[in-house]
Design brief:
By secondary structure, this protein is mostly helical. It has 19 helices and no strands. Helices cover 65% and strands 0% of the residues. The mean pLDDT is 90.
């Protein structure tokens, strides 16, 4: 077997193993998430964040919740079920796009990006932080990425769908505006299709700024939080605890949020270790070096989340996922660190199973598939 044939064979095996592992891990995550009925009935964030609606008037983060509320009202289906199934549908769609790119990649660093515990698979490692409204944003990024690989007509349709989805996203989770540089670069990658990319870039920017302004003007208060909670509970099938998380935080002022965040320091500085670990494949692959301007702009904008919210694990997840989509679209690097095939398999296995990052609160709680399995055996 010639050296070139051997390398080609290894690349095929690597890609197939990556895809199989990706869907296996995603399936495991779904099974664990769906196995607990409390998720649908009690979860104050995984469901509570998604059911914020307009039943107490227009309020930030209420669009997708209003859609789910109306669907639950006319169908008599538990709104918690609707929220959870929407999350899984979004993840499957995102995973399908990731698979599409993986099948067309020969990068030795693809498994490190696709199987990262803080990237596309974060919901498998952290059910409390991985099924949040970022999934709406990631679906936007997935459509923009896919648009770079299809015909002009389909690309144009995907750009429109991604823009409409971004409208829903910003009206449902206004922090999505910090990813505008990532969206800008993904749009820019469509220039080869001779599409009106500039118009879409400015449309995304305008949508983000308008959404942010509306979120500031209609921040929410305690009275609205209580009314929304009442509307959800009136539908039936939900527990009052669903109102005690994201829904209750509508009444938290920005000043109170900053005070809470300040109280978490200096312990929160340990999240910096996890961030560096998450960025390691992008650096070792040579991608950072070849896309320095893109990487810095995306990291700078998304880092604003660290000064407005306590969910540092989620912010690391968001940054890693944004960079992962850009890696899939703009992966022309051949200057990265080379790892022997045998050593790579050992290192990659450890990378996949030995760590993850808590979504909030205590960064010193080490997480990972091995740790999770050990806890289940012990208890």
């Amino acid at each position: 077997m010639t050296h070139q044939v051997r390398l080609f064979t290894i690349a095929i095996l690597r890609t197939r193993a990556t895809i199989v592992s990706f869907w296996l891990l995603l399936g495991v995550g779904f099974s664990v998430y769906l196995a607990d009925p409390d998720t649908y009935l009690h979860s104050p964030f995984n469901v509570g964040d998604w059911v914020i609606n307009y039943q107490a008037g227009f309020v930030r983060r209420g669009f997708i919740g209003e859609v789910l509320y109306q669907l639950a009202r006319v169908s008599n289906v538990n709104i918690g079920f609707l929220a959870v199934y929407l999350q899984i549908i979004l993840l499957i769609g995102i995973g399908s796009v990731v698979t599409y790119f993986a099948l067309r990649s020969t990068s030795a660093w693809l498994p490190w990006i696709v199987l990262s515990p803080v990237g596309f698979l974060y919901a498998t490692y952290n059910g409390d932080g991985g099924y949040r409204k970022e999934l709406l944003l990631f679906s936007v990024l997935a459509m923009l990425a896919l648009a770079t690989r299809v015909t002009t007509r389909r690309a144009h349709l995907l750009l429109w769908l991604s823009l409409l989805t971004f409208v829903v996203t910003v009206l449902s989770w206004e922090p999505a505006v910090v990813t505008l540089p990532c969206i800008w670069w993904l749009c820019h990658a469509n220039t080869q299709n001779q599409l009106p990319v500039k118009r879409f870039q400015w449309a995304f920017l305008t949508t983000g700024l308008v959404g942010l302004a509306l979120a500031s003007l209609f921040h929410g208060n305690a009275a609205q939080s209580q009314q929304i909670c009442h509307s959800v509970l009136t539908l039936g099938g939900s527990h009052p605890s669903v109102c005690q998380g994201a829904l209750a935080e509508l009444s938290v002022t920005p000043h109170q949020q900053l005070s809470t965040l300040a109280s978490f320091f200096p312990r929160y500085l340990w999240y910096g270790v996890f961030l560096l670990l998450a960025l390691l494949p992008f650096a070792l692959s040579g991608w950072f070096k070849e896309n320095k301007r893109i990487a810095l702009s995306v990291l700078a904008s998304t880092s604003l989340l660290y000064v407005i919210g306590t969910d540092y694990g989620r912010w690391i997840h968001l940054q890693a996922t944004c960079l992962a989509f850009l890696f899939l679209v703009r992966n022309n690097s051949s200057s990265g660190v080379k790892i022997a095939w045998g050593l790579e398999r050992v290192a990659l296995t450890l990378w996949v199973v030995a760590w993850s990052v808590p979504y909030s609160f205590n960064p010193l709680i080490w997480q990972g598939l091995v740790i999770g399995a050990w806890h289940k055996v012990v208890h």
